[in-house]
Amino acid sequence: MSYPKPSRRSWAEPWKIKMVEPIRMTTPAQRERFMAEAGYNTFLLRSAHVYIDLLTDSGTNAMSDRQWAGLMLGDEAYAGSQNFYNLWEAVTQYYGYKYLVPTHQGRGAEHILSQIMIHPGDIIPGNMYFTTTRLHQELAGGTFVDVIIDEAHDPANPHPFKGNVDLAKLRRVINEAGPRKIPYVSIAGTVNMAGGQPQAMENLRAVRELCKRFEIPLVLDATRAVENAYFIQQREPGYQAKKVAEILKEYCSYTDTCTMSAKKDALVNIGGWLATNDEGLYEEARNLVVVYEGLHTYGGLAGRDMEAIARGIVESVDDDHIRTRIGQVEYLGNHLIDWGIPIVKPIGGHGVFLDAKAFYPHIPQAQFPAQALTCYLYADSGVRTMERGAVSAGRDPKTGEERFPSLELVRVTIPRRVYTQAHMDVVAESILEVYEHRDQARGLKMIYEPKYLRFFQARFEPVT
Ligand code: P70
């Protein structure tokens, strides 16, 4: 028989749903009270009071039946668990690094890496800061310097690789500080704070060449490197015919070491690692991990967690999976673009980022427009999102001054394999509703400010 070939076919999830978790809608009056009780900080809401939870894609992923089955194969030996070896093998096969030290999550790896590699007075250039990464660099006595391209700081600029390093900026930092003062260059793919924006392979290769000349190692934050690899496949000449798995491995191959929060790409609820090709660093990390995390064959994780990560890595690099994952983010983002709502362009990998400065031009940045927007969204629909602006940026550790970043964003983050397209419709409609009432919105005043990573626990009240 001869069948006609389909000319038009949408993507659909390469899975079906076997188990569901009920969620409940609250009333507007309840939400007003919950938001006030939480000090106008979405981190302080109870999840039972949230309808659609788009706070983060971190540890909020749905595991597959194979991953759940893997939990039953947890080898909970204190030392030498089989699951550790399975994880090590998966990291080596898909990310390419020789040595593996598991950690309880990403910041555990950042802590160990920073303590080993950074000395007081050091400079760490990177493609935009990330909150926990920069704090660990600072706690070790280092100073982070941003060398991302200027386009990344402009939400409306459609550059396809806004995660790229500006090589002239990097060269300048190396010349000014001197290569001896730079323990490594810190690269993230994709760049979370820029709006989930990717770095091009060509750019990483060029950074590699430059660093090699000065013998400066490259450390990759591989947290969302699979998503970065997908964007390379879609956007960078020469990569269309390659599998995401192949691209990921090439991408990592230009770096010496990586830190990883497995809670994102790797489709699990907890876990992380430090992986490296540097035997000396591995020796030190393997030693230090026992002080802060646990023995070097579990690093704060149960055997079953390591098994779930090992299996999650395999699923995460599947082309159909990653196309669906980012396709869903784009589905939401395109709705908002169609309605003229200001978002970071291009649409990012792990979420849609609302441009709060353009959304609320009448609220000064010192009154935290992005933080306020998260509150209005929650009040409207019970959708929880996260501030990524002045509250997140915090204060300069030396001067104590507030750091007002160019980007004042609300991250509408999509967990992997959790919500449906219908949920995305409700989210889009709620954002539109809040946008239509933007003129009446007011800013916030911070009334409690924690010392570290203040955005997690800060409290606010409305400006009167
Ligand atoms: C998020 C989470 C975690 C993360 C990351 C990148 C690029 C390292 C880490 C740390 C959780 C989070 C963290 C700080 C502020 C808000 C939210 N990002 N590198 O939601 O990993 O959380 O496992 O210690 O994105 O983006 P971990």
Compose a concise summary of this entry:
The chain has 16 helices and 14 strands. The protein has helices at residues 28-37, 65-71, 82-94, 106-117, 131-139, 167-177, 201-214, 225-235, 244-253, 279-292, 303-316, 319-338, 356-359, 369-381, 390-393, 421-436, and strands spanning 52-53, 99-103, 123-126, 143-146, 185-188, 218-221, 257-261, 272-276, 351-355, 383-384, 386-388, 409-413, 444-448, 459-462. Helix 2 (65-71) packs antiparallel against helix 11 and helix 4 (106-117) packs parallel to helix 5 (131-139).
Radius of gyration: 22 Å
Largest beta sheet: strand ordering: 2-8-7-6-5
Count of separate DSSP helical elements: 16
Order of helices and strands: HEHHEHEHEHEHEHHEEHHHEHHEEHEHEE
Report what the structure shows.
The protein is globular, with a radius of gyration of 22 Å. The strands form five sheets. It has a five-stranded mixed sheet, sandwiched between helices. It is α/β, with parallel strands linked by helices. The longest helix has 20 residues, at 319-338. Helix 1 (28-37) packs antiparallel against helix 14 (369-381). The protein has helices at residues 28-37, 65-71, 82-94, 106-117, 131-139, 167-177, 201-214, 225-235, 244-253, 279-292, 303-316, 319-338, 356-359, 369-381, 390-393, 421-436; strands at residues 52-53, 99-103, 123-126, 143-146, 185-188, 218-221, 257-261, 272-276, 351-355, 383-384, 386-388, 409-413, 444-448, 459-462. The N and C termini lie far apart (73 Å). The mean pLDDT is 97. It binds ligand P70. The site of ligand P70 has 16 residues, from helix 4 and helix 5. Ligand P70 is lined by residues 56, 58, 105-107, 130-133, 188, 192, 221, 223, 261, 263, 272.
